[in-house]
Amino acid sequence: MKRAYILFIAVSIILIDPSNLTVLAKASVQREQFVYICYSASVDLYHKDSICKDLFHCKQLIKVSLSDASKKYHRKPCKLCSGGK
Question: Fewest C-beta atoms under 10 Å: which of 3, 21, 22, 72?
Answer without folding.
Answer: 3
